[in-house]
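Checked the freezer inventory, then went back to the computational side. Two predictions to log before the end of the day. The first one is the construct we discussed on Monday; recording sequence and tokens without edits.
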Amino acid sequence: MSSTRFKAAVLLILFLCLGMWWLVSWQYSMKWDIMDITLPWNHFISECIRSGNLPLWNPYLKNGFPMMGLPDTWYPITWIISFLFGMDVWAIQMDYLLHLFIGGFGFYSYAKFKGIDQRYSLALGVCYMFSGFMVGNAQHLGWIIGAAWLPWVVLYFDRVIEGNGKAEMLKLALVSSLLFYGAYPPITIILFYVLLAKMLFGFITKSKKLERKAITKIGLSFLLFLLISIVGIVGLYDLTPHLNRGGQLPLSNTGWGILTGFLPAKAISSFVIPYGGTSLNGFWGSDISLINCYCGFLTGLITVTGLLAKNKKTWFAFLVGLLFLMIAMSELFPFRSWLYYLPLFDKFRFPSLFRMFGIFFLLLASGYAYNDLGKSIKSQKYSKIIIGLVLIVFLGSTSFNWIQEGAFGVNVLFESGLQQFNKLASFEDKACINFFILSIVVGALFVNSLVSKNWLRHLPFFVIVEILIMSQFNISETVIHFGDPSI
């Protein structure tokens, strides 16, 4: 590892500890499915391994369950943690934090590989770690593992396509296998089609000679993937006929229909006011763990500058990200229903899962826009105007909410603490807090842009500060359990 990558890894760990201090300092435990389902499951695997047995059969689940049939039973990182520490409350939380780091470092590596400025690549890695998917779906460890390995799979896939050596083929097979073993299975299915589309698109713009070499290397990587993943593949193939969820699911949005768990259109507000998404379950029409799309407001502003400047890479990545969001919003758009007829797309629910890919491409679009912004004085002037206008809107919204609601939000937050505020605050109260914080961050950035010639070099710092502060409010609702962790 180069010194630059090592420094980036250290900084990402530091930011992870700052943003997830609730868990790192053992103040609170996590909650919901990761504690109720994943922990008992992984604890059984851990106990088997530490006693010298393979986790083939679980006699404690209903009338017994063939553990060997599910790929995550064989996920190497679970085994490593089990060997070293055993699997308990604290270990499962460290497992979650570890995969946040893997995802953040992976996105940093991919953004840097695509030529995005190193500082901004680091900021994007932090944004990916603390995105609405990573924080909102913290209870779904399989989803987090999938998001963690996604950048690595795409990185090595692109490197193989571009003609890199044999080592890249092995790395691609390895990270793809880790994703297959640890991730929620639909993520592997979706990513397979994404990579297939990337390959077809790449072949259109490459020479025939390079095309033949790429096909050979991708084919060899796929064979290596099959060899590494054979235990999980065979076990899953044998188990599937015996599962009531192994067959075709209906094309509906109720019960076990594939449209169940969509991303509500109202949830788009989470790009600006993610904290509001933790209120009013009935209002959203979906589980609060499925609605958070936040990946940094300032990154979105930078993307807008790239779109206005008609940067082709920014537009392409933005449109791909937008497409994934529309697939996730299956109540409005027909795209998820159309995908139903592709092989394996009739096997899983939760269209909101697609927002993970949307966040990935939107952050990538922001990176391209930042690069373009640094090359154009005219674009920088426009960006200052945009930032100033946004600041006026935020100050106006904050003032209006303050007049309408009074000082309830701020008073309760500072007098009674975040836990009490979460219980009493309305959507408007939480939105007001969001606007207030963004007003400070955007205001500081605007002032910096006026007084400093190097304000663009400082922008990644503001992006990191914003994502770390804003994410704390959602972490308090969708990640940690306010209570005595010793229980």
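The second is the one RB wanted added to the comparison set:
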Amino acid sequence: MRLLNTCRAAPLLALSVALMLPGQVGAQQVQSYVIQGTVNDAVSQRPMADVAVTLAGTSLGTLTNPEGRYFFRVSIRPGTYTLEFTFIGRRKETREIELGQALTITVDPVSLVETAIQLEAIVVTAPGVEAQRSMLGNTIESVPGEAISEAGSATSIDVALQGKVTGAWISENNGQPGGGTSIRLRGTSTILGGAEPLYVVDGVIIDNNTQGLISLSSNATRGGAAMTNALGDLAPEDIDRIEVLKGPAAAALYGSRSNNGVIQIFTKRGRQGRPRITVRAEMLINSPPEKYDLNLSPYAGRADVVWGPAYIDSVGQELIDPETGEFGRYDYQDSLFHTGVGVNTYVSVAGGTEETSYFISGAFRNEEGIQRSTEAQRTSVRANLTQRISQSLDLTATGTFIDNSQKFVP
């Protein structure tokens, strides 16, 4: 009887264990963890922003905020994993973490040390194309947005690139506000066609060909004295970085359209962290050079007798028109030139959470030229919203309003 009872109890015990195991195993397979910590500079111990923190072997990760903090959620099985900390110009650091019963993991502070840039770690993207920089046949130069926005004397983005790109020849077609700019990255490669590089703003190719205004013959004889500049529509403060591609580096990404090189412009986007407000105000003063010294003597010289009015017949005669009684010489410089003034104001707000980030900016610029009646005015509003749908899908919406006007004098 005891043997029979034991045999009957064994199946019941096995059935109970079988019913309990699926729930327990399923609970241990996937857990939701929060991983957080800080990243700083190894020398100054200052917090580092925009450091990429990723879970090795996965696409899970985030960027550090301006305070050097990172915070992201992962749904993964318990176990031992490796965190990778990467930043351009810094040596990659790794930290092992144990994901177990604790659902919040706080990692010890990580310090990044400066090192030579690893070209294999930099990926350049184009529409539908990805390539490592080490695989390309030429260099790619990157100019940070701070270098563009702090070029106070520059009236547009392309002018602000002067002196910042190796081998680039950048010049203004004229000195009028909002005037066109000529850029040569590889020299003139065509006689009848254009030699301007290809411009790409946030992955969208734009046309920056300078078109001469109708009925201004000075365009033909003075190298385009009344040309517009499409890049002047972009506020320099909205630029995150600019990448300049030349030679095979450009052809590998954009094909034959990049024969004259490519200038990739990336605008700012919202990032995780508390709202960051940026306000900038500048006063612009454009002053003409020294005036020409003119001959304002009230008495006629030899040239006045030969080329002057008919009533002048002797050297030393007073230059007074007997009919009008007006003096014969006049300095027109004050009527043509003046000191131009202007203002440049900029306001932006950026921030967001792990799932949603935003960037909103507004800019107004009004600049007078040293020639009277020359003026350029730009008003722009830009908004960018990024929503994370899943760990592998982000949805980004961008809107821009630009009102730009120029007054040219031929």
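For RB: The helical segments are 2-29, 145-149, 157-160, 218-221, 248-254, 302-307, 333-336. The two ends are 117 Å apart (CA to CA). Let me know if you want it refolded.
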